[in-house]
Amino acid sequence: MNNDEEKAAGCIRALVAALQTSARAVEARTGLTNAQLFLLRQIASGREPTVNDLAEQARAAQSSVSVVVARLVRAGHVTRGRVAGDGRRVALTVTPRGRAALRRAPPPAAERLLGALGRLAPTDLRSIGRGLGALLGELEAGSTEAAPLLFEPPR
């Protein structure tokens, strides 16, 4: 393995380890997955987001976000209701149970990762996208658009 390969492999290992550590901490303290906590925090922001809004914020497919939101609803952390004045839109609201989980929660890995990506220079983001895209191609890992949210099981 040459020096560039060693550095790339080390960076990937460190990234995966940091994300796994964060995921375990979130689940241990809240019983929620990282993705669930990330979306719950977005819903609690007070903007009454729709599933499409959440998908945009998570930079994920609407269908993936919808699955995670459904789990939050089933667990009693979120309720669905119609937006006043626009009966076609479904608003999501955090329940008292969801707020209690948020009080116990450390920042989710997804939020930290997206925040860090947002602080990178555009040239670095393009390099990361190209490099990881090439790596995924070599691994025959499939489309990034079909990928689940961080630490959510694939559907």
Task: Explain how this protein is built.
The chain is mostly helical and 155 residues long. It has a single domain (3-139), classed as Arc Repressor Mutant, subunit A, CATH 1.10.10.10. Helix content is 63%, strand content 10%. It contains 7 helices and 2 strands; from the N terminus they run ααααββααα. Strands 1-2 form a two-stranded antiparallel ribbon. A hairpin with a 2-residue loop joins strand 1 and strand 2. Helix 2 (34-43) crosses helix 4 and helix 3 crosses helix 4. The N and C termini lie far apart (36 Å).
What amount of the residues lies in strands? 5-15%
Order of helices and strands: HHHHEEHHH
Question: Quick one: CATH superfamily?
Answer: Winged helix-like DNA-binding domain superfamily/Winged helix DNA-binding domain
Span of the ends, CA to CA: 36 Å
Indicate the structural class.
mainly alpha
Can you give keywords for this protein?
two-stranded antiparallel sheet; 7 helices; 155 residues; mainly alpha; Arc Repressor Mutant, subunit A; globular
